């Protein structure tokens, strides 16, 4: 993926997170979520383990939004 596409996907994920934060909070409160496009693709209470797992699956941070849900 190009850098421009990565940024557009990241922005799309960020907007989706903002618009769906209450719904996401219901399922993932206190955890880090990884969002790609308009869906949560993984979650963990440990950000490092979440990133490590994403990398092991070939998913790299460029377009992926990782946020803590409080």
UniProtKB/TrEMBL annotation:
Species, as recorded: Candidatus Korarchaeum cryptofilum
Lineage, broadest ranks: Archaea, Thermoproteota, Candidatus Korarchaeia, Candidatus Korarchaeales, Candidatus Korarchaeaceae
Name of this protein: DUF5678 domain-containing protein
